[in-house]
Amino acid sequence: MGSAPDVYATLREELKGGGSVAEVLTPDSAGYGESIKRWSEHCEKRAQAVVLIKSASDVSKTLKFARANKIPFVVRGGGHSTSGSSAIDDGLVIDLSKMRKVTVDPEAKTIKAEGGTIWEDVDVEAAKYGLATVGGTVNHTGVGGLTLGGGYGYLTGKYGLTIDNLLSVEIVLASGELVTASSASNPDLFWAIRGAGQNFGVVTSFTFQGHPQPNPVFAGTLVFPPTKIPEIVTFANKFHATNDGNQAILWGFSAPPPANAPVVLMQLFYNGPESDAKEFFADLFNAEPLVDMTSMIPYEKLNSLLNHATGFDGRKQFGGGAFKLPLNPAFVQSLLSDFTEFVERHERMGESMLLFETVPYKKVVEVPSGEMAFANRGDYYNLASMFKWFDPALDGEIREFSKGLLKKASQTAGVVQDEKIREIEGVGVYGNYSNNDVSAKEVYGSNARKLEELKHKYDPDNLFSRGLRLVPRPIVVVN
Ligand SMILES: Cc1cc2nc3c(=O)[nH]c(=O)nc-3n(C[C@H](O)[C@H](O)[C@H](O)COP(=O)(O)OP(=O)(O)OC[C@H]3O[C@@H](n4cnc5c(N)ncnc54)[C@H](O)[C@@H]3O)c2cc1C
After folding, report:
1. Cβ neighbours for 18, distance < 8 A, ≥ 6 positions apart
2. Which of 48, 120, 168, 437 is the most exposed place for a label (fewest CB within 10 A)?
3. Is 74 in the pocket of ligand 1 (CB under 6 A)?
4. Distance between Cα 156 and ligand 1 center (Å)
5. Are 288 and 423 part of one and the same domain?
6. Are residues 341 and 293 in the same domain?
7. If you measure from the C-alpha of residue 100 to the centroid of ligand 1, how many angstroms do you get, rounded to a whole number?
8. Would 182 be classed as within a structural domain?
9. Based on the domain organization, do 240 and 344 belong to the same domain?
């Protein structure tokens, strides 16, 4: 490999070849600083170059170039992972953020989204045709990372995971070849990318099944004092039996500024009229929330409601676990105490959250675990922690605390940690919330072995190596 400036001058020339206008930003380029920004400051790394991709052909050329020059690379979709897997110090970034076109086919009810789209792009465009698919609950997250790792949203109760609604992808493989993966074309690759996609190539477009989505919907936040935990937990326990897939509640703890006092937040969703929603959530309204921000809203605004609580400043870390209902209010109170004690002991951590994502999972577990790579299908809900802080000296301490809190919440809530049972019941870890400190077996369970063999088939040199640890493993034929 030549010196960095020389080698990237060559890449610029190669990209010009096909009439492409892809830009190659190096540290001295205008816009470079903006291009390495990520949702979490602790994932910002000073890449040698950032290639602002405009087409699948740009991806193909950049991959071939990186391979020929032995330059490590990462792929950036929406830039939200807190594992750092879309940023790099010693190589180049294949940045898809300029590929954000969404095309809807109203006859076929399909939604085609380019590889760098964010959920806002999809929600807004699909709504013009009265359609929606299962998108993330914060609309500035990337379609790319969220889909390739599984994807949960408010519509999961009705339609399952994002990948359960994925019809096909166009993907550039490590070889530079552009292929289609679907149930009819390269079905083994399609199996792998639905849960472990970051390991297999650069997806330049996703085609989703759209569903008719009536407007408006009932949604918004309620804020309670911690003394209301018994009422909230009692409601969540009841919700497990009373929901019919058209409702979701995301609830948990935070201590938001300016007061920085601990509160219980509850995000409500009801896919239907206000009168029905008010009746369904009556116990919560009767519990006299401190703040009520619920109302009827257009569906395409739904995934923007949490944007204010998930802004781009500061260092952040996502973590995942699982919980079962019914929960015991005293146990939830003890988690709140642990959380509050830690957050209050450190400066400017009040926007951190522990969330019980009570999104109905009946549709999720209807799909067998071996149907695709994703293995977090079980009789439990996801737990998510999002810690936010500003002082880099706290990075390690927060990572450890988050792990401990999630472990306590997951184990005591009854999710079985025994490996054999996990394989039957689901792994209890959502890969998109983990931080590369978990093994392939932990995230993919009994699908891990097949994934490693497919990795050997599609990326034998492990060029896509920066996400969850999945290493190529040749198939051993025993005679
Ligand atoms: C505020 C917030 C809210 C969230 N809410 C939800 C939620 O409601 N539901 C849910 O399921 N998850 C949620 N998540 C988790 C989310 O799924 C992950 O953070 C996901 O990695 C984000 O994808 P991204 O494209 O924005 O991230 P990136 O950091 O850009 O990418 C993540 C990984 O995917 C790879 N990647 C991205 N795009 C492509 C592509 N086109 N081709 C190949 N590889 C690609 C990257 O290389 C990287 O390894 C949330 C995260 C945050 C920060």
Report:
1. 57, 61
2. 437
3. yes
4. 17
5. yes
6. yes
7. 15
8. yes
9. yes
Are β-strands 178-182 and 166-172 bridged in parallel, bridged antiparallel, or unpaired?
A: antiparallel
Query: What is the residue with the minimal CA distance to atom 23 of ligand 1?
Result: 145
Domain that holds residue 70: 4-95
Q: Whose CA is nearest to atom 44 of ligand 1?
A: 198
CA distance linking residue 84 with residue 74, whole number of Å: 10
CA of 138 to the centre of ligand 1 (A): 11
Check which CATH number belongs to the domain holding 221 and give it: 3.40.462.20
CB of 149 shorter than 6 A to ligand 1? yes
> What is the domain count for the chain?
3
Q: Is 323 in the pocket of ligand 1 (CB under 6 A)?
A: no
Same domain assignment for residues 33 and 163: no
For 145, the token pair is: 């990372």
Domain boundary among 95, 113, 146: 95
Tokens of residue 158, six digits: 């009705």
| Residues in CB range of 178: below 8 A, 6 or more apart | 56, 57, 59, 60, 170, 171, 172, 204
Longest alpha-carbon distance in the chain: 70
Nearest C-alpha neighbor of 296 from the set 270, 320, 265: 270
One domain, residues 200 and 226: no
Q: What is the torsional sign of CA 43, 48, 54, 57?
A: negative
How close is the Cα of 77 to the center of ligand 1, in Å? 7
Same domain, 72 and 118: no
For residue 451, being part of any structural domain is answered with no
Look at residue 106 and tell me if it is in a domain: yes
**Domain co-membership, 41 together with 117:** no
Q: pLDDT tens track of the chain, all 479 residues?
A: 445 668 999 999 999 876 668 999 999 999 999 999 999 999 999 999 999 999 999 999 999 999 999 999 999 999 999 999 999 998 999 999 999 999 999 999 999 999 999 999 999 999 999 999 999 999 999 999 999 999 999 999 999 999 999 999 999 999 999 999 999 999 999 999 999 999 999 999 999 999 999 999 999 999 999 999 999 999 999 999 999 999 999 999 999 888 889 999 999 999 999 999 999 999 999 999 999 999 999 999 999 999 988 988 999 999 999 999 999 999 999 999 999 999 999 989 999 999 999 999 999 999 999 999 999 999 999 999 999 999 999 999 999 999 999 999 987 555 545 555 454 578 888 999 988 778 899 899 999 999 999 999 999 999 999 877 788 888 766 65
- Cβ–ligand 1 contact at 39 (below 6 Å): yes
